[in-house]
Design a protein that fits this description.
The termini are far apart. This protein has 653 residues and is mainly beta. The protein has helices spanning 5-25, 100-103, 108-113, 185-190, and strands spanning 33-35, 40-42, 47-51, 66-69, 86-87, 93-97, 122-127, 143-150, 163-165, 175-178, 192-195, 204-209, 214-219, 228-232, 262-265, 302-303, 310-326, 351-355, 360-369, 372-381, 396-404, 407-413, 436-446, 450-457, 463-465, 477-486, 489-501, 506-519, 528-537, 553-555, 561-563, 565-576, 581-593, 605-618, 621-633, 639-652. The chain has four helices and 36 strands. Strand 16 (302-303) and strand 17 form a beta hairpin. A 16-stranded antiparallel β-barrel has the order 17-19-20-21-22-23-24-26-27-28-29-32-33-34-35-36. A four-stranded antiparallel β-sheet has the order 1-3-6-5, with no helix packed on it.
Length: 653
């Protein structure tokens, strides 16, 4: 007898397979988010909002969400049961309403069932992974949120106490309102608006931060110097459903009160700054703004009282120790000129050294102006000469730079130096150009990937030869670079032009510097290779240990000028063992070729090799240990070498 069962089974299995394939094809992006996002919620919180990564099924309601107390007990009857879920039209946001009968005091449900949440207890909200989207495809795995209940919030929002950080005239900077505590994020998004002096709403973008107690509004047009109003709708609510007109948990016969529903402000005009504009208002019952330390516009900064500028005091304390198994000559850095040659007195000398001269102190001030960012930066280390007291060193200026917009002035890293390609270590490789030069620089970003820069810098070079024939520098060094910045790293090509001169002659020369850092996907995505190659002539002083040495070139007896050729570079590979531990292996070379027939013709070439391990157990604290081997050779084939084990402890602030 013919049976339909096998055919039906095949058809059903095909449907199941097709449905499974359809679910597998759904993009598994995003996750479920919970608002309020604060880990602390008042015990009378009224609403929870769940945001889903895709459109969900029509049969999901608040009853499908699980709430557990700190004993692991599932709580029933906490959420208000509804026949249909309280969904937004796109079915991506589900509003979970806590039963008002258990939130408000004095009601039967509150007496018989108790409060929905109890202050001091911890809770876990679970969104089951079995919940399906509109295609019938489950979320996959459970999503859990933990929070702690605090005391009931029975005070109404008070806009008159909110703190407003005013933007600057002529900018699209955000006006920032600190509400003092987390509020309902939907109310913050839809119940606060800004009007101009004519009462016309201002278009812009709203952003919330700090667990929904900071409100940011950035306009689509520049702020004018007229007055504005922040308008708060009377339906605005905090987490407990309290409104400016009255609290949610009040007697039904108790009337709602009038509320302050506007806050006036005027953007700051830097050209007409006054005590009133900077927010230093003396109000009864309120502390003046200038008496309060406020967070600045960049990490670790505070706002300078009475101004719109932000300042950060930073630096670090660094202790260095090193032991030379065979002396490397110069105790603080690798120096090609001081590596003792074989057979000399210092060749086998063992040296131990400890100091804290690398410690630094800096002050960074920034502000926004109609023509771009204003910034000043000054930094000192302690490489000055020692006094008659033991280990007493004077501060030395490292950086003193200022800029506005794309233009920068003062002493800072030369544009021939690529700071982002420096390898980590206790000492710099021989072939790493390090120089801080005073000058004027201009730089600009071209789209998201390219940056170009040009500048003039102090020449600061030195020539060897008859001092009577040496001349003062009459032409600045010209520098510039182009840099490509991509997710995989960066590559930079820098160019340097300079003039070497005597009383009777001059030559124009320079160099090129190709450098960068390439990031790799392995090693947790943090392994990288740094590289640098420099070639040219006349710029030996761009290597810190060769400065003020007369190595740029020679003034011959006839007054002619010849420059010293330079070829240098390094490779450094860094591997991250974990989030706290990493190591770098590096090799470097530096070759100087002076004018033939002169003392500079006997200049050395050198190689250095290093391997280290660094550990950052907590933020701002780093310990490192590095082994360095370096060798040198002069034109007469004499050689020298040495090795060092050095350690460092750095505490940033």
């Amino acid at each position: 007898m013919f049976s339909l069962r096998p055919l039906i089974a095949v058809l059903l299995s095909g449907i199941v397979i097709t449905a499974q394939a359809s679910c597998d094809e759904q993009p598994q992006v995003g996750t479920v988010d919970l608002y309020p996002s604060s880990p602390l919620l008042p015990e009378n919180v009224l609403r929870l909002y769940l945001y889903f990564p895709r459109e969900m099924g029509t049969d999901i309601t608040a009853s499908d969400i699980v709430l557990l107390d700190d004993a692991g007990t599932e709580l029933d009857g906490v959420f208000l049961p509804t026949r249909y879920g309280l969904w937004t039209p796109d079915r991506r946001r589900l509003t979970v309403l806590l039963d008002p009968g258990r939130v408000k005091s004095g009601l039967k449900a509150s007496h018989t069932l108790g409060k929905a949440l109890e202050a001091g207890r911890n809770y876990l909200l679970r969104v089951p992974g079995a919940l399906a989207d509109k295609h019938g495809c489950p979320l996959g795995s459970d999503v859990e949120f933990r929070f702690k209940a605090t005391g009931a919030d029975i005070s109404k929002p008070a806009p008159e106490t909110w703190r407003v950080s005013k933007p600057r005239v002529g900018t699209r900077d955000a006006v920032i309102v600190d509400l003092g505590s987390p509020h309902d994020h939907v109310s913050m998004a839809y119940r606060i608006r800004i009007h101009d002096a004519s009462g016309i709403p201002i278009a812009g973008e709203i952003r919330l931060s700090e667990n929904e107690h900071i409100w940011h509004f950035a306009p689509t047009i520049n702020w004018s110097d007229s007055g504005y109003e922040i308008a708060i709708d009377n339906r605005f609510e905090d987490l407990a459903g309290n409104r400016p007109s009255g609290v949610f948990d009040r007697n039904i016969d108790e009337p709602a009160t009038d509320s302050v529903d506007t806050i006036s402000f005027r953007p700051i005009d830097p050209r007409k700054e006054s005590l009133e504009q900077t927010g230093a208002r003396q109000e009864i019952g309120r502390v003046p703004d200038d008496a309060i330390v406020r967070a600045g516009d960049f990490t670790g900064s505070i706002v300078l009282p009475g101004t719109t500028a932000s300042v950060r005091i930073g630096g670090y304390v660094q202790a260095d120790m090193g032991f030379d198994f065979d002396s490397l000559g110069f105790s603080d850095a690798l120096n090609l000129r001081t590596i003792p040659l074989d057979g000399t007195t210092a060749d086998d000398e063992q040296v131990f050294r400890s100091h804290a001269r690398y410690s630094r102190l800096n002050i960074d001030v920034r502000d926004q102006t109609p023509i771009g960012q204003f910034r000043t930066f000054i930094e000192f280390d302690f490489f000055g000469s020692g006094s008659t007291f033991t280990n007493n060193y004077t501060p030395v200026l490292r950086h003193a730079a200022a800029g506005i917009g794309n233009l920068y002035f003062g002493q800072y890293w030369s544009q021939f130096t690529d700071l982002a390609a420096f390898p980590e270590g206790t000492s710099s490789p021989l072939g790493q150009p390090i120089v801080r030069n005073p000058g004027v620089r201009w730089r600009s970003d071209l789209g998201d990937s390219w940056r170009v820069a040009f500048g003039i810098e102090d020449p600061a070079g030195d020539l060897s030869g008859d001092s009577a024939l040496l001349a003062s520098d009459s032409f600045p060094n010209l520098t510039g670079y182009g840099q490509l910045q991509r997710p995989w790293g960066h590559v930079r090509l820098a160019l340097l032009g300079l003039k070497l001169e005597s009383t009777d002659d001059s030559v124009y020369t320079g160099g090129a510097h190709l450098s960068g850092r390439v990031n790799f996907s392995f090693g947790g995505g943090r392994d990288n290779l740094a590289f640098s190659v420099q070639a040219g002539s006349g710029f030996a002083h761009y290597y810190a240990t060769l400065a003020n040495s007369g190595l740029e070139g020679l003034v011959a007896d006839d007054g002619s000028v010849e420059s010293t050729d330079v070829l240098a570079g390094y490779l450094a590979y860094q591997h991250w063992w974990s989030n706290e531990w990493r190591s770098t292996v590096k090799v470097s070379s530096l070759d100087l070729d002076g004018p033939s027939g002169s003392e500079l013709a006997a200049l050395q070439s050198g190689r250095s090799y290093g391997a280290n391990i660094f550990w950052t157990p907590v933020n701002n604290v780093t310990f490192g240990l590095e082994y360095i081997y370096a060798e040198s050779e002069v034109i007469s084939s004499q050689q020298g070498s040495g090795s060092r084990l050095s350690g460092v402890a750095r505490f940033d602030f």
